[in-house]
């Protein structure tokens, strides 16, 4: 075990800032943002050690929307926790570029549920990361309000999460992540428990925020259509121990709204992904 | 999660449902005592008890004993609950601290604390400090155990979210562990107060020259039964105000769990 927290490498930094000025089309280049090499993770259990991840090699580009797709229990959430630094007990190396000059965090996570605090108002939830960074109250609330407006929750700033629907709560979580302004957004099935309609709306909101802010996104999901709708590229993971089976480009035009996605290409890709995935799902069911 | 435990005394109608049965019993008692079906020497009619209570309060002796008991309970409650919350949070979060402290807590938790009072008197003398300390320990144990359990049941996602957003140790305690375990903390405080009131009465009966417990015991021995009831009324009132007051405060502060 030589687990180390993700390292930052600086040489990409100036380049990344420059590119942020240019347009979206040009900026999606091959400059790496996250490099994972031979990442493995084993959970020590009483009877038998469980190998959750084995030898994950993955390069995620700067400002890319990257989806991790895999059967349940394949370790995709584990991989995300390693990227976030919440789990530092792993083998292999993870490097994340773009160390922050302003001391803000490099990554920020959006959780499936329970990521926002029921005892804090919506506004305080959204401003929480900035508070932890020592940003003074007025400034952090100002910034939080900006993003609350972007996710259409401005009038709920003083409400508490229990007064909101599931979809609204996840919008609060997303607003917080964007307010923190990290280099990399890590999203762990953020819409997994929502109904189809709400999910679709939130996907659209997320895409629009993403194209505005040009963040690198690593998005974990088990929903093939979601991965294709959102991602620039997607990685299909193997059943436990999780590894990368194949990385696919999603060559669909953006902005991707309902109706704007070419049906044939979408279907072809979906079938291809399903084929890759079905073996793995079969395996994880049989085990 | 804890809906069944939740009491809401907000609407007057509901309050009526709680008070009416009690009033009915008191009324029966009044009638039976007046008709001398029960011996009014031992069971003086409630109206007489109320009169005597008021008279003794004005006269000052009852007010004095009430104040003495109240001060002891408040002191013990303050010491026991602050230390209990602090240690409970720490035990809940830190595994080493839990391993270090929990054996002692587990050992003392089930012992009826009153049984330890003679040892404490032996060690520290029959002093006010011991009277308060004995209660503090009982309250401490209940609050610490409940708080620890409260911290351990906090959803990991809240803790992950806090850490991922850059929370340091202090912020983690203040913004997540404390509010996340608040309803268990208040359950512990409420239980602790219950035990505290029990203990104060017994300790004052055994080893004090003041306080409501002392007054109850002495009045019984001197056969001044009405005084005994007056003291009983006061300890009941204190118990109701504090225990239900803490419950109500807890419900208010953990408003998000009511839904």
UniProtKB/TrEMBL annotation, chain B:
Gene Ontology biological-process entries: transmembrane transport
CDD domains, per database record: TM_PBP2 (cd06261)
Domain (ABC transmembrane type-1): residue spans on this chain: 66-250
Chain coiled-coil ranges: none
UniProt KW tRNA-binding keyword: no
Compartments (UniProt record): Cell membrane
Cellular component GO terms, alphabetical: plasma membrane
Family: Belongs to the binding-protein-dependent transport system permease family.
Identification of the protein by name: Binding-protein-dependent transport system inner membrane protein
Originating organism: Halorubrum lipolyticum DSM 21995
